[in-house]
What we know:
By secondary structure, the protein is α+β, with helices and mostly antiparallel strands. The protein has two domains: 45-177, Heat Shock Protein 90, CATH 3.30.565; 178-290, no CATH class. It has helices at 2-25, 32-39, 100-115, 179-182, 187-194, 206-218, 221-229; strands at residues 49-51, 54-60, 76-84, 87-95, 128-139, 143-154, 161-170, 175-177, 197-199, 246-249, 253-259, 267-273. The strands form two sheets. Strands 1-2-3-4-5-6-7-8 form an eight-stranded mixed sheet. Strand 11 (253-259) and strand 12 (267-273) form a beta hairpin. The longest helix is centred in the first third of the chain and has 24 residues, at 2-25. The radius of gyration is 31 Å and the shape is globular. The termini are far apart.
Amino acid sequence: MNKKYLxxxxxxxxxxxxxxxxxxxxxIKPDSNxxxxxxxxxxxTTTDISTxxxxxxxxxxxxxxxxxxxxxxxxxxxxNVYTNKNITVNYPQIINLGDTNKQKSINEIIKSEALKxxxxxxxxxxxxxxxINYEIKWKSGNLLSLQYSGVGxxxxxxxxxNLLYTTNINLDKVAKLKLTDIVKVxxxxxxxxxxxxxxxxxxxxxxxxxxxxxxxxxxTTDTLIKNFNNADSLDNIGTENQSDTFSYFTKDSLGISxxxxxxxxxxxxxxxxxxxxxxxxxxxxxxxLP
Length: 290
């Protein structure tokens, strides 16, 4: 009987030992779903970076603004905002370009040009209310064309001003482009502009459209040639070379904005198809166009 109990005890001990050995060999693998969820948690972005009494906030640019993108470009744009009291200027910044120094230089140009809208107010911003947004007119590996628009109002003036200006950048050379860098300014260009397609930056209004078109037709050839030659600069505000004329580029057209009366909208934009001004396009910079 004692031998029987001894055998049973030995068998039980053997089974327990084998079971323990197997337990030590089992590895608990992490839940694959948990791992995926953790990887997909977005990292918080940095906000409220104070610079020169302004708040500079950066976040991803909405895809809807990239309607002018070319499939050949290799960078993205993030949205930044400059705020100071009642002043808000939204502007983009390039990210993921691959060349850090080049990216930094381009972004400095973009920001500097975006904020030059303050030149209209001679640095007297205490009583200024300004709200500027931007639109990407064209984005490729060679060319970035940005259009800014909004409303500015200074306390005590008769009415707010509808503002529009642009920034075009040759990404290859990291240089700002002017209208004269792309096209030859002459009477042919003026005629094409006057017969171009009107583009309203505001709610479509047939009476406003008619007033804008009439205002442009009243501008003389000499006036337009002078303004085209001085176009795309916010540095000449308050001087005899101020033109309030700006250009931008789309997939198939050159856009030109000119200053007109407040009653007609303050500015008017007309687009000209590239194919209609082939003889005016600078062959040296033709590769920049879509």
